[in-house]
Design goal:
Distance between the termini: 41 Å
Number of strands: 5
Strand content: 15-25%
Shape: globular
Radius of gyration: 15 Å
Mean pLDDT: 79
Length: 138
């Protein structure tokens, strides 16, 4: 398995030790950011993760970062949304989020790896398309 540099937004190591441990044992570098800021661009620029994972649950309803709901061309890294509980599913604005992947509880490291790989691929394809379109418009 590949090792990824992951930023886990809305996830606390103490609340999700098993998942974080599984990812680290597989070789990933994991940084947990329990506080979800509306505009996490500063953290993303410092971390430079391969992918950012956002934990969406009852506690984080309505707190999705601007990155996920704003202009999709401003997204600098692929995002994967992890939906933790059933109450959050009904209120999930899935169509308005610009995530590259979405997983539902229970989470397993292999599923997360597969989704991160897919998200990275989709993100790269979007960047190639954006570059090609910008040259075409010029």
């Amino acid at each position: 398995m590949e090792a990824f540099n992951l930023g886990l937004f809305g996830m606390d190591r103490e609340k999700h030790p098993q998942l974080v441990d599984q990812l680290e044992q597989a070789g990933c570098h994991v940084v947990c950011l329990p506080e979800v800021r509306k505009n996490p661009f500063e953290e993303l620029n410092q971390l430079r993760p391969d992918a950012a994972l956002y934990l969406y649950n009852e506690d984080t309803l309505g707190q999705a970062p601007v990155v996920l709901s704003g202009d999709p061309t401003n997204i600098s890294v692929p995002w994967v949304v992890l939906v933790e509980d059933e109450k959050a599913v009904n209120k999930l604005p899935a169509q308005s989020l610009h995530a590259h992947g979405m997983l539902f509880y229970p989470f397993h490291a292999k599923q997360i790896f597969a989704m991160v790989k897919l998200a990275i691929h989709l993100h790269r394809q979007e960047r190639v398309k954006d570059v090609m379109l910008s040259h075409y418009v010029e």
